[in-house]
Amino acid sequence: MQCANEWSCISETGCDCTPFSSWAAVCTLAHILADTMTDSQTDGAATESPMEFYEKLTAQGEAVKALKTGKAPKEEIDVAVKLLLQLKLDYKRVSGQDYKAGCPPTDSPASGESVPAAAEDGDDLVDPWTVATSNAKGIDYEKLIVRFGSSKIEAELIERMERVTGQKAHRFLRRGIFFSHRRVQQPSPSALDMHQILDAYENKKSFYLYTGRGPSSEAMHMGHLIPFIFTKWLQDVFDIPLVIQLTDDEKYLWKDLTLEDCHRYAVENAKDIIACGFDVNKTFIFSDLDYMGMSSGFYRNVVKIQKHVTFNQVKGIFGFTDSDCIGKISFPAIQAAPSFSTSFPQIFNGRKDIQCLIPCAIDQDPYFRMTRDVAPRIGYPKPALLHSTFFPALQGAQTKMSASDPNSSIFLTDTAKQIKNKINKHAFSGGKDTVEEHRKHGGDADVDVSFMYLTFFLEDDEKLEQIRQDYTSGALLTGELKKCLIETLQPMITQHQERRKQVTDETVKQFMTPRKLDFHF
Amino acid sequence: MQCANEWSCISETGCDCTPFSSWAAVCTLAHILADTMTDSQTDGAATESPMEFYEKLTAQGEAVKALKTGKAPKEEIDVAVKLLLQLKLDYKRVSGQDYKAGCPPTDSPASGESVPAAAEDGDDLVDPWTVATSNAKGIDYEKLIVRFGSSKIEAELIERMERVTGQKAHRFLRRGIFFSHRRVQQPCPSALDMHQILDAYENKKSFYLYTGRGPSSEAMHMGHLIPFIFTKWLQDVFDIPLVIQLTDDEKYLWKDLTLEDCHRYAVENAKDIIACGFDVNKTFIFSDLDYMGMSSGFYRNVVKIQKHVTFNQVKGIFGFTDSDCIGKISFPAIQAAPSFSTSFPQIFNGRKDIQCLIPCAIDQDPYFRMTRDVAPRIGYPKPALLHSTFFPALQGAQTKMSASDPNSSIFLTDTAKQIKNKINKHAFSGGKDTVEEHRKHGGDADVDVSFMYLTFFLEDDEKLEQIRQDYTSGALLTGELKKCLIETLQPMITQHQERRKQVTDETVKQFMTPRKLDFHF
Q: Residue ranges of region Disordered (chain B) (predicted)?
């Protein structure tokens, strides 16, 4: 129950926090169970109508939700979920349609206008609140690109980037961690996002970066840093303004926290973000709760967006229901607004034509699909997007990171010893059971979490490839691979902790004060 | 199409502005037509099911809406409305339930939890967007009090008020124009709103006033001044802080206007409000668009309220639908927030226990029912309320004031000559057709708009009573009554115009700057 709508929910796969995402998680579970239950599909339900199944299914969905909310015993929930699955299969058989909560069966299924955020693809489920898969390798990103309608970052784009900026592409780009982007102009398929941005850079036209985080607790883990590490690199390469949104209002709306706690988490998280090395003269970090009351532009843009998005639309995109509070329903406009330069008149001098580039984990894409849809209708340019993959939990890409389980993740506050113990004890291994077997057959790097982490954090491409080959051949043992990861992470985290110690309240205040940055507009 | 959700929609009876209220208006019209159409009720529809009627009825409602939106010829609309009515009657006969848009027929009608704002009572319809009646005397306020669950302001309360404050009660109280109030403590029925406020006053405990206006155009008419005239009097009597909200964001959301226009109307309207004589040291006027970006407390309270109100609730209270934009859906929290003193930290020094008293037209009550429901759940005192009646259009209490028809109302910019002409030509008269008849039978003051206006604006109780008697007896002719009204209004409006001329941009800026007022908290 802890990662509802993480801005950078990179890693907390499968968390079932909100009523909606818990419902979605149930559906996924149902999918997974489906394979084992095909035998019971056929008993005597053929006489019932689609509507009857729909109603039964809705009722059972509510029942499962109630059980989960009431923290019922696991077995009880499992039984209820199995029944739900059975009903779902029956429903599909009878109606020829997939069950969708809130959508009774129709004769001609015509409600496919907006891609629902919670669309499932095989065993994967990705929306701003939930990331779940049953595959040890993690989410199938190729499929996700097709479903989300974004574009893969091809080698050619990365090469152009290196050519234009004169710098080597970040390892996140080289290794497909930032793997997808979105077209700026829908009608012109050749003008891809990053290409457009590179055009702008070549033509000395300015743009700015926007990313963010949902401050759900004081503790941040390694995965939370991915978008910030990458954004820092983009800022260094392009030398452009950066705004970082901390959605403390959203955390208050989604979780059982006080406004004061959420705001405190925002300030604490800001320290970890600042410790990534951002330049105070080029970076503005803001808490929604504070900045809404300090800006002449932010609320105006929020209202403009809110006028142009209906409940039907957010229902389709985010799966909101009639029982959701009106704060959740209107929140997407608040994450959308910083995509428009007029939300920051102090930085952009009131100009409304500055293009925005948003690096974020791909589960945040629904917010920005909505934003891109609204932009031309309120006279603003569409933001460009760079999507990252998810950071896996120590236990494997198909399990969830949980703040209540400190062993599911490496936190930025962990000691060198804790890091060592966590990796040695908990990092899911693709190695074989015995040394003999491993030497003979080799390990599976694709499912090995230690190796996955190295792709995120080991800078040296050749060394990484050597490790992959040695591990796959069996020359490198699991313990040796883990040792390599430990030696990579320990100094990284120690250095982060040292940099964070340098971040005073005064520094935070500087970053979070609305002001002109070192750019002239 | 011009008074959607007027903060002080005192007079614009029956305007059909939003999709919702236009639908409601259709229902009312249907009610009115009902009496004349009872003959056609019975032909051959008995074989159809309630659901079939429901669907037909919904379709016909849409058809009527489309005709109205498309400005179809009146006869065509009338025919469509008649059919709608017929279906409605059939539906009620078959299902035993009243038709409600969006609510299919149920076996046990159980959705009566929250009083819908658009509840109809006989021929009256009152919600924040629509005020409609078929009665020439206007809305039946006794019934409205019962339906809204508020309390009538009794003579005893007015006497206590005069005793406690040492001042004569305002004519709006003496004459039942402010006629209703709301209990502060539901469980303790003896502690009525105004009584509680008077207790506070006697105990030197402070409270503050909150009222507002939706700035839908530059032009304000006499009716718009009612809450401000009364609020000014309350401020003078009690010597307490006053905050005035201009909901320019709401006008932008509901109407086809730009953000800039709405904000400009807010500033223009502020001039007319200031011209009522408010003390700049005791009064804070704010535009939502501006103040949201200037206050550390306002947005925080908005989010708190938004967390505690669901879409189901606002659907029940305001009749929102899934096609409404998310801005409308979340707006009620913005009108609610100024009821809590922490929205104005600069005035109340961060104190959260200052009680709020809201004088407003009774059509705004749904907002504050919601506010009172939320208040204890977020740790704030419930606001107290004083409700006013509606100000009638010149053509009579059952017609609508329309900004596109300058003759439906007396504007604050009208010249003495225009006032004279409007009253003489357009004020609905309760007099008889000929002088002879009038002398013989007398006039009907209850439906006479000139007399109604005098109850609002003639200070002298004895003179008003004399006029009523003379008019009813026939001693006073319609022309003489109108002359009396003209002579009352002309100097009032002239003086208002002179005071407004004195209001400089600098004065407006002073009133609209967040600042400490002359009160110590």
A: 100-119
